[in-house]
Every structure is written in structure tokens, then in C-alpha cells.
Amino acid sequence: MSPIGGADGTIVVADLRKRYGELQAVDGVSFTVAEGEFFGILGPNGAGKTTTLEIVEGLREPDSGSVLLLGEKPWPRNPRLLPRIGVQLQASSFFDKLTAREQLETFAALYGVSRGDAADMLDLVGLADKANTREDKLSGGQRQRLSIACALAHDPDIVFLDEPTAALDPQSRRNLWDVLRVIQQRGKTIVYTTHYLDEAEILCDRVAIMDHGRILAMDSPAKLVRGLDAPTHVMLAEGVLSVEQAETIPGVEGVNADGVSLTLSTRTPAPVLAALAERGALDGLQVRTATLEDVFLHLTGREYRA
């Protein structure tokens, strides 16, 4: 397996640029993805995630820069790469009036894949019991899983997923996480975009955080969070301690009372928790450390993006 982030990665992107009129959608993007890696591209609306993904997939021509997939250039459209990559787009389109099995068998037939292998893919995504159900009768989560199954029908080496869990309920999202874990365990390289920072933190080996067409940070979620040097927040039920008492605890950098809870900010949580234990103030205590969402907001800001 190639070293993660190495120059000999399964995907190598160098100084990618794409402009639409006055908008610089992609502005000097470079990254590599190793074989078997789960790589996430994160960013607010309009950050350039989808355009970057489409260029890497060979669906869109860059203005400049280079992309290599498995040692091949994806643009102009490269027939040698098509059997080795699977693509699931934001908006999935299916053939009218076909069942889940028929949809998958139709996609598989385009690549010469047997019906038996297609049936195995339905089982992989948990749709074996819906094989004879028409696509338009499936739930949103089931349609997303069918879309991923179609992208995997020909057993590609690299799978591109553009917001695969968008608009799904929490249960469907978590079910899909299990599917994505199984796909990676099969040795597939996964590149995906998402607005759900919690799932990126759980699923991804590395993430690139984009905004205004540029990569602002790129590393494993754990390393990005550690690099933020954000305080830990210790939350107590209102009335357990007064603000004045909390402010005297060594290591507490700030105290906030909102009428429901008392929140202590600290970069040295161990002695603060020990002091709270001595005061008998641990009942109902919650500790919140920094997350990938904190890193994301620190880098991209908090303003609303339409």
C-alpha cells in the first residue's frame, strides 16, 4: 500500500485550477490519496468541493493543473479508467419503472458484470429484501444505498461519493456509515464530500478542508483537532457552583452561565475535574472537547452560506 499522502498515491492532484467567469471555483488545489484510504473533502457551500471532484473523476476539464488516477489521466475521458472507478453523484438518476435488482443489473451489464455479482452488491448495501421493489417505491436512504450499489456494480478500485448521506434521517445515515466501512474493508479507495462533520471525523483517514477554491488544511481529523489548541468545556448543572466559586478553580480560563448550565473553559481539564470532585460537583457533569466542526468553523468562519 502506498504511504498516505505520498507522491505515488492512487490519486495525485497537482495545482488544479478552474474558473467560471469571475469565479475562481478551484484555485491551486493539490493532494494525494493512498490506496485503500478514506479521504474526505469538506467545505461550505460554494467552496469548490464538487467541481474539484468532477475534475478528478474526469467529468470536467480543468483550466490548468494535473490529475492522475491509478497512473492515468482522466481527461480527456479515458476509457481505460472507466472500469476502475465508480461515481455516485449528488443527484442520482435511475431507469424508469425498474426494480432495485433490475437497476443494478442494468448498470452491471454496461461493464460485463454477471447477474450473480450484481445480486451480491445488493446484499452488501442491505437491499437484498428490496430486490423486487421498484426504485421509486424505495425510501430516501434505500435509494442512496442503491445509488452506491450501482457505483460499485463493476467492483471499481476507486469510489467517488458526493454527499452520499445528504437529506437522510439519523438512522439511515448511520446505516450508510456501516456500508461505507465495509466498502473500505474490501480494499477500495474512497473519496467523498459531506457537510456532516461528525461522520467525516468518524469515517475519514484524512480530510481536506476547502474554502474559496483552496485547501486550508489537510490531515487526519485527530491531528487537525489537536492542532486547534481549543479549550475543553466542562458543563455543570445550574446551581451546583456559583460563577464566583468556579472562577477560583485553578486552570479555569473562563466561566459562562446561561441559566441552564455553567460552562467552564480550560486547557488543563484533569486538575479542574479533580477540584470539582473535591467539591462534590460531578453530578450531571459533561465534558466537551474540541471536534472537527470546531476546526472547520475556525478555518472557514461562521457566516451563513446560501
Please provide a written account of the structure:
The protein has 306 residues and is α/β, with parallel strands linked by helices. It folds into two domains: 216 residues, Rossmann fold; 59 residues, 2-Layer Sandwich (Alpha-Beta Plaits), CATH 3.30.70. The chain has ten helices and 13 strands. Strands 5-6-7-3-8-9 form a six-stranded mixed sheet, sandwiched between helices. The chain has a four-stranded antiparallel sheet with strand order 11-12-10-13. A three-stranded antiparallel sheet has the order 2-1-4, covered by helices on one side. Strand 6, helix 5 and strand 7 form a beta-alpha-beta unit. Helix 2 packs across helix 3, helix 3 crosses helix 4 and helix 7 crosses helix 10. The two termini are 40 Å apart. Its main location: membrane. Keywords: Antibiotic resistance, ATP-binding, Cell membrane, Membrane, Nucleotide-binding, Translocase, Transport.
Strand and helix layout:
Blueprint: E1 11-20, E2 23-33, E3 38-42, H1 49-57, E4 64-69, E5 85-88, H2 100-109, H3 115-124, H4 140-152, E6 158-162, H5 170-185, E7 189-193, H6 197-203, E8 206-211, E9 214-219, H7 221-228, E10 232-237, H8 243-247, E11 252-257, E12 261-266, H9 269-278, E13 286-288, H10 292-300
Parallel strand pairs: 3-7, 3-8, 5-6, 6-7
Antiparallel strand pairs: 1-2, 1-4, 8-9, 10-12, 10-13, 11-12
Helix pairs in contact: 2-3, 2-4, 3-4, 4-5, 7-10
Domain ABC transporter: 11-237
Subcellular location: Cell membrane
Pfam families: ABC_tran (PF00005)
